[in-house]
Amino acid sequence: MSATILVADDQAANRELLAELLTGDGFQVISAADGREALAALARNQIDLVLLDVMMPLLNGFEVCERIKANPETDLIPAILVTSLADKQDRIRGIKSGADDFLTRPVDHVELLARVRSLLKLKMRTDELERAESVLFTLARSIEGKDPYTHGHCERLAESSAYLGSELKLPTNQITALRRAGVVHDIGKVAIPDSILLKPRGLSPEEWKLMREHPVVGECICAPLKSFRLVLPIIRHHHEKWDGSGYPDGLKGESIPITARALQIVDVYDALTTERPYKKAFSSAEALQTMKEEVAKGWWDADIFDQFQRLVRSAGTDFMSRSSAAAR
C-alpha cells in the first residue's frame, strides 16, 4: 500500500502542483488549506508524512509542526516545512518546532521526491520498531495476566518508576527506558513453567534456581531491539541488591544501574501493597516501614528510597495511581 502524504498550503495552485508530483510518483495525497484543517486531517486519517507551508492562516506551519510533535499519537510522523523564507532565524524556529526537513521555494521536483522517499524509509523502520515493541509489551502483559493478583502491575510500575525517575532528575531517555522496563522487566518469566511461576510459596532449590534466571532470559529476548539499549540493564539488574546479595550478577552499590535501583524500589512497594495468596496487602505505612528495614539490611539504595518515601507520603495512600497520572 502506498504512503499517504498530507499537503497543507493556503494557495490552491501550490497544493495542486505538489499533489500532482506526489500522486505521479505513486503516493496518496490529502490536501488542507490551512493549519487547523491540516490538524483535523491528521486526526481523521492515517498519515505517513506531512508537507507544511510555513505562511498559512489560522495556524502557520511552525505552529502545526509543534502540535504534531507534541502529540504522542503523531510525533513520529515526518514533517517537511516548505518555505520561501531564507532567513537563518526561520530555519532555527523550524528546527525548534520539530521539523524533520526543509524545502525552499521554488521547489525542485527531484529534490522534493528524494527527501520524501528518504523520510518515508525512516518512517517505515520506525513503524517496524513500534510493531516489535508492541509484540514484546503484549507478551509481557500475557505473563502478568496469568496471575490475577498481579493485574495492572506492569502499568503501575511503568508510570510510577518513570515518575520517580523524573523526581530523581534522570535524563529523558532514562525516564523513557524506565517506562518501557516497567512493562517488560519480567518478560523472561515466559521461560518459567506455570507450575513454578504460579506457586504461591515454598520453591525448591531447583525451582528457585530456574526463577532466578528470568532477568537474563528477559535481557536476551529484548536485546535485538536497538531502542531497548537503555532498557536492557534494568531488565537484567532489577533483582540486584545494594550489598551485592542479589542476582543474576551480584552487583553491589553504585555498580547497579541507577534506573534498575529506581525500578526495584517501586517494584517492591507495589508487591507489598498488593494482596497475594500468601499475604494481605500492606498499608502504605507498613510497606514503607518494611522497606526501611530492608534498606538497613543493605538491600536497597538508601538515597533513592528516601526520595521515594517523600513522594509516597506527599501523595498519601494512593501513590501508585497518582504517580501514574502525573507521569502521563
Q: How are the SSEs placed, and which strands pair?
A:
Layout: E1 4-8, H1 12-24, E2 28-32, H2 35-44, E3 49-53, H3 61-70, E4 79-83, H4 88-97, E5 101-104, H5 109-145, H6 153-167, H7 172-184, H8 194-197, H9 205-211, H10 214-222, H11 232-237, H12 258-272, H13 284-297, H14 302-315, H15 319-327
Parallel strand pairs: 1-2, 1-3, 3-4, 4-5
Describe the protein's architecture and organization.
There is one protein chain. The chain is an alpha/beta fold and 328 residues long. It folds into 2 domains: 4-126, Response regulator (Rossmann fold, 3-Layer(aba) Sandwich); 146-327, Hypothetical protein af1432, CATH 1.10.3210.10. 57% of the residues lie in helices and 7% in strands. Strands 2-1-3-4-5 form a 5-stranded parallel beta sheet, sandwiched between helices. Helix 6 runs antiparallel to helix 7 (172-184). The two termini are 34 Å apart. Residues 324-328 have low confidence and may be disordered.
- Provide a count of the helices: 15
Described by its quaternary structure, the protein is single chain
Describe the strand arrangement of the main beta sheet, using strand numbers. Answer: 2-1-3-4-5
In the CATH hierarchy, the architecture of the largest domain is Orthogonal Bundle
Overall mean pLDDT score? Answer: 89
Sheet with most strands: 5 strands, parallel
CATH topology of the largest domain: Hypothetical protein af1432
Strand content: 5-15%
Shape: elongated
